[in-house]
Amino acid sequence: MESDEPGPGQKYALEAREHIAALRRAAPDIVIEVRWCPAHEGVEGNEKADEWAKLAAEEPDARGVEGLKWFTYSDRLEERAMPLPRSLANIKREITEKKWAEARKWAGGRTSKKKYKMPTSQKPDSTVAGSAKRLAERFYQLKTGHCRTGEYLHWTRSRLAAQCWWCPHPRQTREHLLKGCPKWRKQQRTLWKEVWKETGKGRRWRKAHELFADRRCSQAVLNFLASTEVGKTVPAAEEDARSEASEWELRERAEREEERRAEAEALGRGMEREGHPLFLPTPPFMALAGEE
Fold this sequence. Notes:
Blueprint: H1 11-26, H2 44-58, E1 64-71, E2 77-83, H3 88-110, H4 126-129, H5 133-144, H6 150-155, H7 174-180, H8 185-199, H9 208-213, H10 218-226, H11 237-273, H12 284-291
Antiparallel strand pairs: 1-2
């Protein structure tokens, strides 16, 4: 052993040191050896302790100790099975598993399988976690679909239309930005070339939600985001407000003109039914003045 100094949280090592100190005070000439057992193999007591620890950690409720006498609520002795004591590690693991099961169930009921694919592992993606914070933020926003795209901003009523602000495409979706937008054609070719090397599948066989769910593609997607403004740039608020105001003005103007036209037609029909012509004949003096 390099040292017999206990580490943090080693309760039994601290207790052993206290007992050793008590023995040395009682018998100063006593010889005490502290030996390190590298494994449970070959040591009967250690093998039994290991067996019990595994038994308690794996399925503590499935087994029991039979034949022990316990007091019941009526203060009478009876024999019944006693469940084995559970380790703290087993309790923590059970809580974690239940928590993740509930989280997956909750997320699965609130997301569409066509837009988001649940991860198979509970551990975070180390590639994304090791990247810059702003880059990882854009990655996860695009992965969940809650991102700076025309489609999402239109859905949240932040924009009047879902049109792409880099090209005339009517809907700016994740698929469009990763595959079809001509603004980022060069970066798209690089992205799908790297994806093909890692997975053997190209853009025709990969949907956006599948691309973000495959951890083999994480680095390629991060490189694409780092070299583009996808998920980062949105038209300036002033320009956006100006375009929205002009669209609203045109729409209101058209509605007002339609209302005036309808009122005029209704007025003309009403006067004709009452025997009053809509346009009176030209007076004779006005006709003569026109001829002169």
